[in-house]
Amino acid sequence: MPIDTALTVDTSPISTTPSTATDLDPIWARVVPETRARSNDIHLPISLAYAERLCTVHPEADALVVRVTILLHDTGWGRVDEERILSEGFSGDWRKADIRYEHERQGCLIAEEILPELGYDDAFIARVTAIIDGHDTRPEPRSLEDSLVRDADRLWRFDHTGIALAHNWFKMTPAAYMDRLEAEIIPELQTSAARRMAETDLARSRALLKASVLR
Predict the structure, then answer these.
(1) Which of 6, 33, 67, 162 is the most exposed place for a label (fewest CB within 10 A)?
(2) Is residue 40 within 8 Å of residue 77, measured between CB atoms?
(3) Helix (H) / strand (E) containing 153
(4) What is each CA distance from 183 to 44, 53, 87, 114, 176, in whole angstroms?
(5) Cα angle at 91 between 33 and 180, to 5 degrees?
(6) pLDDT in tens, 30-78
(7) What do you get for the CA distance between the two ends of the chain, in Å?
(8) Are 27 and 68 within 8 A, CB to CB?
(9) Could you tell me which residues are beta bridge partners of residue 191?
């Protein structure tokens, strides 16, 4: 059963609620080169906006852990062989591809490099890296914060921006990719809030992209 919330879930287009806080700007500034791989300069800011929405309806979570982790979770893609990202990370049994484990390891190393000099203590960094290490490859989340990061990482795919980028990675048409999102990704979402956002975004994207006829 997904983790539920009694609070009102915002299902408006994510572009209407970008992250406006500036406290993470020093981290963003340190990982600009790592965001240039695999369109992370689009994926990561959108995922942060979703993460903040999820934290709003789960105030019991440590929002700073969630926000820092989602910002850094995929930066490891910037330190692996870019050709292998698409050839291995999005084909075959892609969830178990070595390149996915490697990007998690590299993401942890990046967090351990930059967070201490920005004032984050060892205990906080350990919580961040525990989530990054396995966010793609570990079957189950280990904490509420882990669940929120996983959901935010997936939610961007349902927005038309994510669909426009990711359908080509999987060599699918947009309509086929949206069908895959419904069949495979929605069931993976850990919270009821994320499922509501995903279903609403998917309906909007299907309408916008004429998925009923452009198949």
Answers:
(1) 6
(2) yes
(3) helix 144-155
(4) 24, 24, 23, 38, 11
(5) 100
(6) 999 999 988 999 999 999 999 999 999 999 999 999 999 999 999 999 9
(7) 32
(8) yes
(9) 3
